[in-house]
Design brief:
Blueprint (H helix, E strand, L loop, with lengths): L1 E3 L2 H13 L4 E6 L5 H11 L4 E6 L19 H10 L4 E3 L3 H4 L18 H4 L3 H16 L3 E5 L3 H13 L5 E5 L19 H6 L2 H16 L3 H15 L2 E9 L12 E10 L2 E10 L8
Parallel strand pairs: 1-4, 2-3, 2-5, 3-4, 5-6
Antiparallel strand pairs: 7-8, 8-9
Bound molecules: pantoate (PAF).
The site of pantoate has 10 residues, from β2 and α6.
Length: 287
Amino acid sequence: MVTVKTVSDLQVAISMWRQAGESIAFVPTMGNLHAGHLQLVHVAKTKADRVVVSIFVNPSQFGVGEDFASYPRSEQEDQDKLKAVGADLVFLPPVAEMYAPNAQTMVSVTGISSHYCGASRPGHFNGVATVVCKLFNMVQPTVAVFGLKDFQQITVIQAMVRDLNMPVQIIGVDTVREASGLAMSSRNSYLSAAEKAIAPLLYQSLNIARDAVLIENLPYAAIEQQALVFLQRAGFQPEYFSICRSSDLKPAAQSDTDLVVLVAARLGKTRLIDNISFFKEPAMNHG
Ligand code: PAF
């Protein structure tokens, strides 16, 4: 496995593979890798001849007062893990390599970026779309692999790829969870022991909501409200809990069938997100 820090070194390595007729799968990350990231690499290896992983804590997707400076960085351990799972190349650029001081271009996926996490973190998805667009241009992969834990993020990226005719296939990989059900996240390291005991209730709230949709068929506004109360009582400060259509993340109607429930909540100083997606059988028409 080779590690490169500049776009020119990245492109030399990749052009040699491309000349040899090899395809490239790409896994963008912000490092501090856990089993969820390594699962993305495993999937990427099944999709192409070569796997490129980027590690870049992207300043443009963090807002003022967010955790850019304190975001966990573990570059040596990350490279060791990536070597062990068989990645071919790690791209580890410094900020100056990614963003020239005179940069004037941002990618903005309108509409979908302004709800849910986009409402809590204004500008976040512009930063994500911009850096992912730049990384796609640098790596020019045939496929790119993202975790479905960030369901809104992958929906934004799919919209960008569709709208800008980018020749890359986006693949979503199921969330990897701790035995407790807690979704793996680099930010879980911020949780205290007491918070770690409460955190799995976030996923439990999603399972309760899914059952309320599928078994009880309750009105969605009532399910969302009950979930917010459940989370508050457990000690979270919920930001949103929304039953959505999985195709476009619009609020779901009772008749929609492909659903995802999105949640974000703070536990102490840690902001956690999670989701659950499922299919609801269409109601039978007895007319
Ligand atoms: O999901 C992440 O880790 C980041 O948002 C991404 C896609 C690597 C862009 O910085």
